[in-house]
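ok here's DUF3989 domain-containing protein, seq below lol
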Amino acid sequence: MSQEKVDKYKKEKANRKQIMQKQKVRHLLRRCIVAVLGLALVCWIGYSAYGVYEDSRPQESAEVDYSAITDYETNLNGTE
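and the structure came out like this:
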């Protein structure tokens, strides 16, 4: 049993640089994923808040006066 532990320790020591490099890469990858998700969450909240703000603003409405077109059509129909 003791010899197995010694052999295992030697293997880990021999590959320690590679193991540490893998851990660093995984840690960096995790941080990047969390950063992207956080940024997406902040953007989504901002977009939703902007939508609520725009919906709460009064809507501008324009009134169209069709009397000139109606008069024109009446004149056309009356002259035929």
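fwiw Residues 23 and 29 are 10 Å apart (CA to CA). kinda neat tbh
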